Amino acid sequence: ARVRDALGVTLPAGLPDVFLQPAADPLGDLIARYARTHGPFTTNAIAVRFGLGVTVADAALERLRAQGKLLKGNFGVERRLEAQEESAGADPSMRNPPMPNPLAGHEWIADDVFRRLRLRSLKAAREATRPATREAYVRLLLERHGLVALSVGQAALHPRHTEGGALTGIDGVARVIEQLAGVPLPASVWENQILRARVHNYTPAMLDELISIGTVLWCGHGKLGGEDGLISLHPREFAAETLPPTAGADDAAALSPLQRAILDVLADGGAYFARQLATLAPARLVEGPAGIRDDGPLVPTSDLATALWDLAWAGYITSDNWSPLRARTGARAPHRPIHLSRRRRGLRGLSSFAQSRTTGASTSGARGDPTLAGRWSLLPRESASDTARTLALVEGLLDRYGIVTRGAAVAEDVPGGFPALQPLFRSMEDAGQIVRGRFVEGLGAAQFAERATVDRLRELADMRSADPVPVALSAGDPANPFGMILPWPPHRSAIRPTRRGGAFVVIADERLVFYLTQGGRNLLTYIDADDPALAPLLSTGLAALAAALKREKHLMFTLEMVDDRPVRTTKLDAALRACGFSMVPKGLSWHQ
């Protein structure tokens, strides 16, 4: 009867009388039934479905809305139709032709359907915001740093290399420097344990090339021990935002006369070999800035080296290659000269300090001292606003850690701590650039990340690798979350792990497997060595540790204890000897 009375349809004969009883609002009943069985729809859809005029259909819908049966609003119907037409390959010129009656575009949904959809959406949102495990975050962090291949199920998107990470070539080196821009790490660690761990075919010439053409700068952050020191690397294009602030007047007042003279010479612009500074700096001491002599008395190489390196460690000056740092830390120099390609010479990051001020100079340092090799110049100090520097810091944290928590801010000693960053995080969240939530269990409620990172974290949480790849890295590596973002796992030994230089960790199957203490005397294990099912993980983990140790040149130590037990009495004895350790009276010796 509703079809007959509302639409004027002639009904077939013989229908039971119960179906022929007239209704008070036949058209409203038909539309209400349609609404109860469909998602959001438009007035035009009702008009087409029932063969009505748009005005008639919209009036009927308005009556149902007044009765509380329908809701009117913007429910994304138009966007959904556009997506369907696009996926179907419709002609773009024919998509969504303009409707002659504006009433046709009104969107509607049944009240009970809306409630069901909202409940399902809330449930899906709760599922999406359920914190992932810490193991999934460990895998995400290793993946972001190029230490393991990107995984899809059980397959790898990148080739699996036996040594080094998933990155390749000089572009891989540039990517590592971009990700770690401004992070101070020991100079002795950068090549052996940072770049070699990530770039599987790394050679020293790659880093030298990036620095020599001015694409990358290095900056000192203080001396460590006798020959080592903290160094940060910076893409030249963003150096103004990532370099530390200029030293204050109090620091400059503490400089020696020779150091101030060196800075005066370099302040004229350009770059100088050490042997040139040995002449020009004393001349400044004699005549001052107004009367520079090129024939001043030479400074002893030892005095010049001390002055230059004190300035370098303090962040005043830099050089146009990594060779001086390599010589100080005892690393092996490149086996071949650097030949800069025409393509690399044209990179946008080329800086002025790579241009020599003088001609006819030799490429050695002050009379052949390898720690003074190359040309020295002032670090550029372009001004950058506090907002720009904070934004660069936040973007760097997101790039390095994926999910930024209080622990990441503490680990990088952010001025003002995590609260100082939260206003910018909230602004980025309001702009839709990042999201906030509890993404990783146990890391607090204030966690910030890009949406793609959160999606990747959830993908990794649902994956389980049948063949976990162990990764050995320096304990102080930013890719090691333990002792920084995640707490160290409990261990029965009295030894407490630290992130000191010279210590190593092995991570496999998204968990900490081994920790080798600084100096190599003790090895801590975090899995059950007596479990036969874990035997392959132990052997591959020790092999990864040996590969990391081999990256260190002239490394010698004796491993004496494993979990507070003499190493020769443990089940790891044979596996360690198979990886390159040799027997000595005190335990197992490593010599490389």
Automatic annotation (TrEMBL):
Q: Supply the InterPro entries for this chain.
A: WH3_Lhr (IPR055368), WH4_Lhr (IPR055367)
Q: Which residues form the Large helicase-related protein winged-helix domain?
A: 134-236, 384-466
Keyword hit for Nucleotide-binding: yes
The answer to whether UniProt assigns keyword S-adenosyl-L-methionine to this entry is no
Q: Name one GO molecular function term.
A: helicase activity
Q: Which residues form a coiled coil?
A: none
**Protein name, entry field:** ATP-dependent helicase
